[in-house]
């Protein structure tokens, strides 16, 4: 989980500013057309496969939309994202539901280190059973859509080493089950949100973005065992509230910054 190398210079040289702008434009256009999730979203998407399981049917819709939002997949990793057998897709992992062991759902999507170019479509918000979403080291651009707040079971979000932009994605703080948040090596900017340190997270990785923020007084409220926020413009005083973290905090990385303690 902790391996995410700063290979941005190599990764992004093949994606020009014009190409990035085009991807951003397409995502924002899709967001403006679809808005938030619709109850009848599946009727707006052509279903060319018979999928009896309603959970997998929704996942099929989401993955089909995501594949359409991928502009390059150099290694053809998602080449088999076409059949109704979602559990055979590369990077897609199924498990039985707790209520009915005979019913499978998609619980984990892992496309780490695949070098996919594209964006996250609004339809990802219907991945109701997803617990792990690992998308690090691709060339995913634009913003993290607000619709992923619907992912009530999402436990880990690893979006490290992409080209996401905008202010701190507050949608992550509305993910009820989230424990592991990794946003390293992106282009997020602006201030950190105080709600970040009030949320029951175990791991917070924000380093190597463009955040410009005062260190918040409630930092010590965090129950995280690891917090990494170096290589941002973080300033001000490191509150003595950090003393409240002695029973939980194992690693705190804040280098190349000057702080005073109070």
TrEMBL record:
Alphabetized UniProt keyword annotations: Cell wall, Cell wall biogenesis/degradation, Glycoprotein, Hydroxylation, Leucine-rich repeat, Repeat, Secreted, Signal
Residues in Leucine-rich repeat-containing N-terminal plant-type domain copies: 62-95
Cell location: Secreted, Cell wall
Top-rank lineage group of the source organism: Eukaryota
Annotated signal sequence range: 1-18
InterPro entries for the chain: Leu-rich_rpt (IPR001611), LRR_dom_sf (IPR032675), LRR_extensin-like_regulator (IPR051582), LRR_N_plant-typ (IPR013210)
This protein's name: Cell wall hydroxyproline-rich glycoprotein
Source species: Musa troglodytarum (fe'i banana)
């Amino acid at each position: 989980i902790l391996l995410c190398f700063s290979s941005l210079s190599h990764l992004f040289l093949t994606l020009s500013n014009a190409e990035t702008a085009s991807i951003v434009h397409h995502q924002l256009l899709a967001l403006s057309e679809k808005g938030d999730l619709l109850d009848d979203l599946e009727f707006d998407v052509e279903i060319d496969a018979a999928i009896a399981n309603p959970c997998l049917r929704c996942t099929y819709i989401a993955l089909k939309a995501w594949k359409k939002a991928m502009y390059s997949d150099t290694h053809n990793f998602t080449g088999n994202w076409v059949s109704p057998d979602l559990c055979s897709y590369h990077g897609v992992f199924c498990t039985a539901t707790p209520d009915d062991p005979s019913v499978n759902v998609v619980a984990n999507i892992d496309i780490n280190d695949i070098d996919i170019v594209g964006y996250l479509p609004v339809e990802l918000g219907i991945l109701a059973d997803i617990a792990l979403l690992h998308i690090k080291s691709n060339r995913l651009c634009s913003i993290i859509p607000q619709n992923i707040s619907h992912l009530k079971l999402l436990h880990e979000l690893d979006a490290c080493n992409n080209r996401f932009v905008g202010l701190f994605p507050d949608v992550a703080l509305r993910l009820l089950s989230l424990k592991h948040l990794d946003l390293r090596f992106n282009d997020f900017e602006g201030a950190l949100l105080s709600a970040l340190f009030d949320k029951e997270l175990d791991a917070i990785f924000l380093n190597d973005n463009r955040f410009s923020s005062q260190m918040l007084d409630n930092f010590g409220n965090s129950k995280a065992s690891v917090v990494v926020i170096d290589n941002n413009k973080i300033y001000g005083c490191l509150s003595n509230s950090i003393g409240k973290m002695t029973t939980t905090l194992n690693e705190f990385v804040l280098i190349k910054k000057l702080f005073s303690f109070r």
